[in-house]
Design goal:
Layout: H1 15-30, H2 40-49, E1 55-59, H3 62-70, H4 73-92, H5 95-119, E2 123-127, E3 130-135, E4 141-145, E5 150-157, E6 167-173, H6 181-184, E7 186-191, H7 193-203, H8 212-221, E8 230-231, E9 248-251, E10 255-260, E11 265-271, E12 277-281, H9 284-289, E13 292-297, E14 306-310, H10 312-332, H11 340-349
Antiparallel strand pairs: 1-2, 2-3, 3-4, 5-6, 5-11, 6-7, 8-9, 9-10, 10-11, 12-13, 13-14
Helix pairs in contact: 1-2, 4-5
Length: about 350
């Protein structure tokens, strides 16, 4: 899942046929057509019901999206470079100089425009077939994330965004493929703490702790061992002087939460049943300092869960503990065809 060429597109369908095919595929993946005793006519009606009522969860106003781009370090850097190059071209009176760098500037500004156009009119809702995301300006797009397909979630905040308390939420989704990582990995382009909490709830309704909001606040802005966090080894101060007090992890009954970053704050959440494998690595500098890095391997995506600079004894314990938690979580996980048990239960009752 998520490898090169794993994403399939069907083009030139009539709009009604495309919507019907989408409903049929979602119903089949949910287990409606696979359930025993379900006639084709009932299955067809059930697939149509997959496009039932939606529960709105959050939306991103255009004003907030524009503000987030203005306060983005990347946008400010691009604007500063553009002004510098323009002034140089005027001072040197060399039009050729400006024309030489214009393609590079247009490419960089194209990234900024892509962020705006892709996040335009962004809305998230909850429906029978999973999480529905709608967004796009020139190209309207609707995504449906079936339950259980999100492998990891990351919450990030740049330095300038702290002024407004804004965060960005991205995800790793099994099956999107490497060609669609950037385009389809956004769960929330920009939002405050309440929108972030709702985004996390969409992916992981039960965070596995008695005070999920309190734990999220500590993970997003805290430092040290408050909230049960295990921080990295003090020996990491030499290679990580600014963030070694903040970098760390905590395990709940449902997920591992990894906290890192100082200028760019970042929180990664990985449900216990989702890691593809676990690993411990040690580079030459870490070997000299007697520290290691712990990795949770996820599917292809923008998130690579990692806890750097741990004490080896902590990493050994974490390897054993996380392996046990992952096995237990996978044995209790819901099947991919999440509606099939409900249909089987209805058949028994009937």
């Amino acid at each position: 899942a998520g490898g090169s060429g794993s994403n399939v597109s069907l083009a030139f369908l009539k709009e009604d046929d495309a919507w019907q095919l989408r409903a049929d595929l979602l119903a089949a993946s949910a287990g409606l057509k696979a359930a025993s005793g379900l006639t084709p006519s009932v299955a067809h009606g059930s697939s149509a019901a997959m496009d039932g009522p939606e529960q709105p969860v959050f939306d991103v106003p255009v004003s907030r999206l524009v503000g987030s781009l203005v306060l983005s370090v990347g946008t400010l850097a691009v604007l500063a470079c553009s002004l510098v190059f323009l002034v140089l071209a005027i001072v040197l009176q060399e039009v050729a100089f400006l024309s030489g760098i214009l393609p590079a500037l247009l490419t960089i500004w194209g990234v900024v425009w892509g962020r705006f156009a892709g996040g335009f009119n962004f809305r998230a809702s909850l429906a029978a077939d999973g999480i529905r995301l709608r967004h796009g300006m020139l190209e309207a797009r609707q995504q449906t994330l079936p339950p259980g397909r999100v492998q990891a979630l990351a919450i990030q905040q740049g330095l300038a965004w702290r002024i407004k308390g804004w965060w960005r939420v991205t995800i790793n989704v099994a099956g999107y493929g490497v060609e669609n990582v950037e385009k389809l990995s956004t769960l929330l382009p920009v939002g405050g703490f309440d929108e972030v909490a709702r985004a996390v709830w969409l992916v992981l309704p039960d965070l596995g702790t008695a005070d999920p909001r309190g734990l999220m606040e500590i993970a997003m802005t805290g430092t040290g061992q408050t909230g049960g966090f295990t921080t990295v080894s003090p020996r990491a101060r030499i290679v990580d002087p600014c963030t070694w007090r903040r970098t760390g992890f905590v395990q709940t009954d449902r997920a591992m939460i990894i906290r890192s970053g100082w200028l760019l704050r970042k929180v990664v959440i990985v449900p216990h049943e989702k890691p593809q494998s676990l690993g411990v690595t040690q580079g030459p500098i870490e070997r000299a300092l007697g520290i290691v890095s712990f990795r949770l391997h996820s599917t292809v995506g923008s998130i690579a869960p990692k806890i750097p600079h741990l004490d080896p004894l902590v990493a050994d314990w974490l390897m054993t503990d996380q392996s046990a938690r992952s096995r237990a979580a996978r044995s209790a996980a819901r099947p991919e065809q999440w509606l099939r048990p409900l249909l089987a239960g209805d058949a028994e009752l009937g």
